[in-house]
Amino acid sequence: MVDKQLADKIPTFERGRGNGQADQGVSITNWSALMGRGGARQFGEILAIILVAVVMIGGAEGLLRGLNVPQYVMPPPSAIAVAFYTDFQFIWEHLLHTLVELSAGYVLGAVIGLILAAVITQFPFIEKIVAPYILMLITMPMLALVPLLILRFGFGYEPRIIAVALASGPMVMINSATGFRRVDLAKIALARSFGASTFQIFLKIRVPMALPMIVVGLMIGAIFGLLTAVGAEMVGGGFGLGNRLTTFSSMIQMPQFFAVILILSFLGILIYVIFFLIGKKWASWQA
Amino acid sequence: MALATTSPARVKMSVKSAIKIYDTKSGPLSALDNYSMDIGDGEFACVVGPSGCGKTTLLWSMAGLHSLSSGHITLDDQPVTGPHPQIGMVFQEANLLPWRNLARNIRLPFEIKREKPDQTWIDHLLERVGLTDFVGKFPRELSGGMQQRASIVRALSFKPSVLLMDEPFGALDAFTRDEMNMLLEEIWLETRKTIVFITHNIAEAVFLSDRVFVMTARPGRLAKVFDIPFPRPRSLDIMATREVFDLVNAIKAEIQHRPTMTTSNRTAGAREGSAHG
Ligand SMILES: Nc1ncnc2c1ncn2[C@@H]1O[C@H](COP(=O)(O)OP(=O)(O)OP(=O)(O)O)[C@@H](O)[C@H]1O
Ligand SMILES: [Mg+2]
Prior knowledge:
The structure holds two protein chains of two kinds. Chain A is mostly helical. Chain A has helices at 2-9, 32-35, 43-66, 77-86, 88-122, 124-139, 142-153, 158-181, 185-193, 198-235, 241-250, 254-282. Chain A has two domains: 15-69, no CATH class; 79-282, Orthogonal Bundle (MetI-like fold). Chain B starts with 10 loop residues before the first strand and ends in a 20-residue tail after the last helix.
């Protein structure tokens, strides 16, 4: 039989390798920017990363102390570390509040955004009608609404959750819609040739095709949600990391203030890493 | 070299007076005009014709992927009104789903049909085309020829009795194309499916077919049918023979001599090329 030898003869072009693959989709981030190719595995790399961190932090410490920069302008890393340690119990509680608002608002916004994106893109007519309002939601500063929401819902979780949902939902929606709008007639015809129903086409073709953009939307939505949660906490109410930021800064407790800032940055990085991993698992076929 | 054609003993698929008119922005566009053909059971038939003459339109109609403006398509004397479980389709450029590995690509028809795949048969097909060791690979990790072989396995996996192939090897280089043609003939000899194969490449059509159907330029009509009498299995050596040379030239002449013998084609200025090729 010819085929066995054929298999050996036909060259395998590793088409996924080159950098000519970034042809589809609008990826706003380079997934691997943070993680490196498959993580920093090499011992030398890890050593270098630690070394740079030590030099940076040590340098900042030395510089701030050497120049006698007052603590209320910029506390040295050691003071922030001490504040982190001594006030952790106290900050921790507020972190939990922020996480509750973020996750509740985000889940709400993301689910609605996803469903809307999926439905709207199936009906171009509806899409035309709804598009201006979505754009309005995206460009509207949600934080400006928070005082209003507080008037209506009080100083509890509600106004913040609503603000987070309103900030993250449209981001999830607009990116997912971009994904769902990618139509590949040949792939849809393929599914139809097997007798696929409209719903099966949606499930087996449209969703996987939209997935990379959905992941991007989910990530941007989560980061916008975090920013909005903190901002809303700064506007009003007596708890949450944002609230701590205003209190610490008004009391000129700068080490504590920067400890909270560090936690927030860490949360942002965590969101990024989570979606990087999700993207790698579910949407790597196009990258 | 036969100029008159033999009609098949037992007709498997038949196209009768097919007319397809697309609605386009610049008005109605006639893609198929009174096209008819009968495909015999177990026959290997090729359809050749100039670019944009309506070959894909014809094949999609036969696959039940879109309806005709008028005319009939039948399979085993039953009208084809939509996608049919007895029809397997091989698209131009493999058309594998890039987010699925080969194994899962081949499983797609069964997921959609909610049937259990016949794994023994699939494994046999995979071995036949030399892809057994590649089932875990994603399409982007495979060469164009391997992708197209996988798509043939996918189309044969659910045992259709008819295989419709739309320029499946059009994007492959000449060597890979020759190898694919030999492989396809072997598979056809083993399975005896009824195959309708569309191509631009006349030599390919002659090598593969029992009969070659030549279409006119748009709107597509049947210009002529050529019997290809060479015994099977064929070897690539026959491509160098006088008979094949003459046949290829005769078919070429048939395509070129009647570029636009149409009277009904009032939208000649409409765009060329395929919207779904
Ligand atoms: N969905 C469509 N809507 C409007 N016009 C179409 C559509 N599909 C095809 N056409 C037109 O119909 C004609 C025949 O197209 P078709 O794709 O069937 O040709 P083809 O013979 O397969 O061409 P090619 O050899 O380039 O693949 C072309 O002029 C094409 O522009
Ligand atoms: Mg075509």
